[in-house]
Task: structure prediction
Amino acid sequence: MRQSVKIKGYKKALRGLDYRTQQKVAKSTLNKVGRKAATDVKRGFGKDYNITQKLMGVKFKPASGKSLNAYIEAPSKNLSVTKFKGKAKQTRPGVVASIKKGSKQLYQGQFLATMPSSQHRGVFYRKTQARLPIQETYGANFAHLLGSDYGRSLIDKSVKANLDKIFNQVFKFYAEKKLGKI
Result:
């Protein structure tokens, strides 16, 4: 999933600088705004979901070389229900786990088990009446959340809040470096 953010109105400010300095200003601004947006996305998801920021796996890939493309990425794997902070508990009707903050969900007819080979603890269910095979139940997929309207709104909100301030700081830094004190 790719999302682009159009930046308008900054070309006039950059006209007084040479091409190389313009590229430095644009890349530096893009990377700083992108890092801030990635942090804001992690915080936004952290407010809603019982998970640490590290387990979300949301990462920022900065613009490098001549490319002015930066990315906010999340792994496309689903997380096990037991990875979320709300402890999963085995009850008589099934497993109770808390993926979203403030709500508990009952996984009817499912059970907690630890795999003997990898010591992985998860919430599992049986497809048939036979003892094996069993399938694992997964929680949120943060790549899908990042591409959802909610994820896009977090990114847009962060970019709108920080772009002007960071551009002005970076532009002033490079302009002073190139032209002397302003």
